[in-house]
Amino acid sequence: MLLKLAFSNLHRFPSLKKLALYFDVRYHPVVPFDSSGYPPYKVVREIGNSHQWDILYAIGSNRNPLPELHSFEIYGWHCSGEFSSLFDETPIAWLIASLRHLHFSLPLVRPEDSVSRELLWKQVVMRRLLQPAENLESLKLSRSQAWDNKQYLDTSQVQLSSYPRLTALSLWGIAWEDGKIGQGGIIMPPPLEDFIIRHRQTLKKLDIDNCSINVGERSRLPFCYWADIYKRLTEAMTELVEVEVESLFSPHESSYVYLVGNTYRPVESLRETERLQGRKQDRLALEEFKTVVRKRRTGGDSGIRP
Q1: What are the b/e assignments for 252-288, b being 16+ CB within 10 Å?
Q2: pTM higher than 0.90 for the full model?
């Protein structure tokens, strides 16, 4: 009740510029891991979930706009279908439309909650949060740090909007959809690559951290390797002055994955020699990408090869 009262009075702070909500939702296994290294998910403790609805409901019930609120961060949002209708409320719609900076992060979920999270991602995050936020200047999409590095936000089958003012983009732990074979055997780039290149005239900073490519099937090789993506970005992103790419995958893991149940697993068809060669080509293309951007920032030669 106190939380509802506090957040329903946000209109008393018309100069509020940034709102950050940190929801501490964690799942703690209380029995040992099994032989596969995965916790059994049978007995867990949920922390901080009960107040999320109170806070967002209070914001959605506040009939007064916040004209200076341009930055919104929401961390560890637990999956629940009840949030869908809440984001149709006028106050939240006003807030989203006025945003300049948005950081959205989802926590690790139990397998039985994965369907709920998928609905939240597609019906709330994509449709009611990202698409109306047409004035964004910076956007960060991530999933929360968790025990396994195996669960990701998946943007497959989803069309991301375009943002005319976007200058900074950060993608953390996102599973990229692989490219596709188009007419004439031409490989169509992944949708996320297309999303980035659509913003080539405004984007100045790009972070791609701990991302993977979902090839879809266990035995299929990627249509698009990271090396291909980095080369195309090098040529297209002429306004970039800062790029950061970080991978937390171990030397024995692959950033090319396929979906099993609710978990992404490395593609096993990549034999050791292919995996090492692919990793080398990816690394060389990334270094070239970084070099070109660095030279552009310092005013040196572009570094783009004819």
Answers
A1: ebbbbbbbeebebebbebbeeeebeebbebbeebbeb
A2: no
